[in-house]
Design goal:
325 residues
Length: 325
Amino acid sequence: METTIVSTSLVPITDALTGFQKGSWIVTSYLLTYAGFLIILAKLSDIFGGKPLILFAIVDFTVFSAALSPLDLSHSFSSFSPCRANFRSLLIIEIASRQRIMNALFGGAVFIPAVINLPQKFQVVNDLSAFDAGWRLLALMLCTSSASAASGFLIQKLKLPPFYIFFVAAILQTVGVALMSTLPTSQPAFPSEQYAYQVILGLGVGFSLSSVIIAAPTVVEPKDMAVFMGALAQFRILGGSVGLAVCINVLNDKIKTASFLSPDLLDGILESAQIIKTLPPNVQEALRRIYAAGYNEEMQVLTAFSGSAVLATLLMWERKPRRMT
């Protein structure tokens, strides 16, 4: 939930603080901190119980969210501190479920950058407001939640082997982001086919997110379940951080190819995308095409990550695929 809130509001926030070029690092710093503490808190929940840890997390989130609100954007970029996971947790991951961890890693590298970058694209390329960009992302988010519920029914009620869900999910993700990379760059209006591509991607992400968690008992003992769940989430967030960092660099490099802009104007646009609206119409159109091409290249990068998820899924193949008992 917090990721979609931040992603839709990121453009106006970074424009107001003149930091559009570095905006995605706000999300990356948050994700890295999130990933660093997941396994540790999961293990602490085994020791002290889930309720105290949940209360601590709520208080911590509330206090530091309030504390960060008056800070300058430049401080927010460095507001994370790395944390090491314990050795035993990593040993469990290595022995029990390397392929599932890889699947979570590559899956996160697709989903999180998509959720962050799509609303930005809608605002910069299609000139939509943050609100309009947010509700146009509903096709992706609703299909993600629906597919998550459906995967639970298929695995637990119909006893379908999770491997087949993993494989279909990886294929759908790959097809979805690959199709998004083909969207026209010369069309200022929001393309209607974008909804269909979001549906495909959302179904793939939804099947992947929940099925990996639901199928955990097939590879992990109950005493290690909390740590394993934390590890899955940690590697998914880590993959998202890597994917997001790659995508923002791809976009920035593409923007810098706008040779028709003066160096000062280019620097200004990298600081605030709102400057685009002050330019002559023909320059606006040319610049939005460059942004659109940059976002398409981001989707090509995500296609490569998603293709890696397909290969990671194939490593889970067994002659007699495991089922939930």
